[in-house]
Amino acid sequence: MTTQLNPVLRYGASASLIALIVLCLLWELRIAPLRPGGSLLALKALPLLLPLRGVLRGSLYTLQWAAMLVLLYFVEGVVRAWSDPSPLSAAMGGLEIVLSLVFFCCAIFYLRPAKRAARARKVSP
User: Fold this and answer.
1) Given this model, what pLDDT does residue 2 score?
2) For residue 87, with 0-12 CB atoms within 10 Å meaning exposed, 13-18 middle and 19 or more buried, which class applies?
3) Which pTM value belongs to this model?
């Protein structure tokens, strides 16, 4: 039994992960840094580089744990969109929310057929 994985969802996950990395870097270095000239908060993009290769290749395992990792960025986006005094930084938080949700949904719906097939293999002898 072969599973049909949707390449559009994989490309959506890849594009949103790359966009999230770029957003984190631009946000903290150019657009709305905490300190003029940029801040070390740009290092928050580093954990997103870890799953990048596996996500680009469509690795099911990598997409699983990357979907959990991206929830941290969702939380940061919510906190900063809600509480950041700078309107530009709050807007960046809103964009971070959108990108992390796009990645999460693409990853979950990409993994869904593979998880169903694995569950069916486990049940049948």
Assistant:
1) 54
2) exposed
3) 0.90
